Amino acid sequence: MTTTEITHSTFTLERHYAAPPATVFSAWADPSVKARWFAGPDAEHELDFRVGGRERAIGRHDGRVLTFEAHYQDIVPGERIVSCSTLSAGDALSTVSITTVEFVPDADGTRLVLTEQGTYLPGHEQPAWREQGTASQLDALAAELDAAATRG
């Protein structure tokens, strides 16, 4: 019998955005906006943003096809999003996660708190890689919000 270890990990990322919670929340809910900052220009992206809805992004990294799929469990507009997701590399399941995104009003904008609880299957993604990738997406969200503010 082969023994393989599964890694469990939780991380929390916080960001401050100079936009009200409704605006930041909308960047998660609007399919075209989310595709720009979340999936990138070369990925396929679908978003059915509602409780029971699904999100799917397919892209490439280091020559591998990566498929992210999320199902929305709880949505409170302007306040929080809770989803369950998987990430697969080719046909191999890599991670299973629960993610909570909170939008907290702050004096001059929004404090976003993202907590992800993940199960990382052996031989695939590492928790540090997922945290780094998620942090990069939140930075891309900042750029998207800044660009929208400039467009006015």
UniProtKB/TrEMBL annotation:
**What CDD domains does the database record attribute to this sequence?**
SRPBCC_CalC_Aha1-like_7 (cd08900)
- Entry-linked InterPro entries: ASHA1/2-like_C, START-like_dom_sf
Superkingdom of origin:
Bacteria
Pinpoint the Activator of Hsp90 ATPase homologue 1/2-like C-terminal domain residues.
18-145
Pfam families xrefs: AHSA1
Family affiliation: Belongs to the AHA1 family.
Full protein name: SRPBCC family protein
User: What are the top taxonomic ranks of the organism?
Assistant: Bacteria, Bacillati, Actinomycetota, Actinomycetes, Micromonosporales
